[in-house]
Amino acid sequence: MTVASEYLARLDDALRSVPRGVAAEIRAGIAEELQSLDAEGAAERIAQLGDPAVIAREAMDAGEYAEARISAPVAVPGTASAASPASVPVSHSRGFAIAAALSLSFGAYVLPFVGWIIGVGLVVMSSMWRTWEKTVAIIVPLALFGALALAATDSAAALTVTESGDATEIGAAAADDSFAANLFAGPHLFIILAVVVLIPASGLWLLWRMRGRAAS
Fold first, then answer.
1. Minimal CA–CA distance to 202: which of 125, 116, 91, 121?
2. What is the largest distance, in Å, between two alpha-carbon atoms of the chain?
3. Mean pLDDT value across residues 17-42
């Protein structure tokens, strides 16, 4: 047995654990190279190639690395953020803003006063409006309502009828008739309009202001 044949036999034993295709390529390449050399040249080349077990181990390592490269997902810049965008806070969404505006307009009808307070809190939390828009929608109706309520209180006090003796009962009836007659007139009418029209209009105005705006 020549030196080349002996080396190829050792190589075949070492390459048994290497995938068949890879082992066949390694064996064919080395055999072709050794067959083209004389005995002295083959011996020198075998010394350069080294132990067949080392060749087989390096082939296995190279195969495992290539397999890992194929199975591992390739990270493409920019795809991670596209696949999982950063979550947007609920208070920045259009749906939250719409709910806030409707609560400001009609919350008081569901929960008197408390519903309006909840609407105010939601409007303040939303990022769909500028600060001055929130201020106008909240402060202006509240200020007008307070002014009209104060005027109505002064008007009711002026209608107090004081009678003495037998005329006391007549005076009380006259006062009741006077209050009923003035309920939908003067300051009382403005207070009713403030509750029914002005406060709901503030939320609807906010809805109009947010038209065309994108959630931030």
1. 116
2. 148
3. 86
Evaluate whether 91 touches 128 at the Cβ level (below 8 Å).
no
The residues, ordered by sequence, that sit 6+ positions from 14 with a Cβ below 8 Å of its Cβ are 52, 53, 55, 56
Kindly state the DSSP code that residue 92 receives in the 8-state scheme: G
CA distance 93 to 81: 20
How open is the CA angle 123-128-134, to the nearest 5 degrees? 45
Copy the structure tokens of residue 59. Answer: 């082939």
- Please state, in angstroms and rounded to a whole number, the distance separating the CA atoms of residues 146 and 194: 10
**What pTM does this model have?**
0.47
- Using CA atoms of 187, 189, 192, 196 in order, give the dihedral in degrees to the nearest 10: -130
- Cα–Cα nearest to 42, from 55, 29, 33: 33
The token duo for 53 is 């077990």
How far apart are alpha carbons 12 and 199 in whole angstroms?
91
d(Cα 91, Cα 87) in Å, to the nearest integer? 12
pLDDT at res. 179: 52
Could you give the CA distance from residue 109 to residue 116 in angstroms, rounded to a whole number?
8
For the beta carbon of residue 180, count every other beta carbon within 10 angstroms: 9
